[in-house]
Amino acid sequence: MKKYIAEFIGTAVLVVFGCGSAVAANTLVANNGAEIPLALSTLLIAFAFGLSIVAMAYSIGNVSGCHINPAVSFGMLVAGKMTVKDFAGYVAAQFLGGIAGAGLLVAFFGSNESLGQNGYAEASALGTSMPVAFLIEVVLTFVFVLLILGVTSKTENASVAGLVIGLTLTLIHILGIPFTGTSVNPARSFGPALLVGGTALAQVWLFIVAPLVGGGIAALVHRYVLTTEE
């Protein structure tokens, strides 16, 4: 039970600090009429997500492994590093954590109009089409999960794994934010979308399915192509 609670807490923290930073930055711009370069805003949000992972990795990593992402858990399941029972428990805890984190953001900002939700087409900064958004999320999640499987496969990497994973998530967000807001995490997407509703909730299927596809492909590549085990 402790590992499920840890996943709940970790996912909630990711949503609060990652999505919350996006909402705060956009709110400041809207209220003050400030002009912040898009590149700078993207970097700030990207680092908020990355640093959230670093913080949680060294807080709950020894309890649950700090997946805080159903796509990561699915990758672990496909790679043979997780049982079906634990996968179900992790995913349930992660989705509940994502909803709780989004709920805290509603309390913080006093509104559910914007919670850092993902989107495509008119809900995307670049107007990204649905097929392109799906491809982007698959590719970004593939890279992220492949990195996680690789860096955690060697015990000597344990001390730096959290930092490497967090920096990789930052890199992924730098590219993905203009296209979809960057999901690579079904629980991170579902919580905000559920409470925002409307277009965000109608489009959230993509940000659940695509990351799972990307995570599954990464696990297969790691298990059957990149593994060094005989």
UniProtKB/TrEMBL annotation:
> Does the keyword Signal belong to this entry?
yes
Q: Which organism is it from?
A: Bariatricus massiliensis
Q: Which PANTHER family match?
A: AQUAPORIN TRANSPORTER, MIP17260P
- Keywords for the protein's UniProt record, in alphabetical order: Cell membrane, Membrane, Signal, Transmembrane, Transmembrane helix, Transport
The protein's topology relative to the membrane is: Multi-pass membrane protein
Superkingdom in the source lineage: Bacteria
List the transmembrane segments. Answer: 40-60, 87-110, 130-151, 158-180, 200-221
Q: Which InterPro entries match?
A: Aquaporin-like, Aquaporin_transptr, MIP, MIP_CS
Into which family does the record put it? Belongs to the MIP/aquaporin (TC 1.A.8) family.
| Signal peptide from the UniProt entry | 1-24
Could you identify this protein by its name? MIP family channel protein
Q: Does the keyword Transmembrane apply?
A: yes
The main location is membrane
NCBIfam families attached here? MIP
Where is it located?
A: Cell membrane
One Pfam entry for this protein is MIP
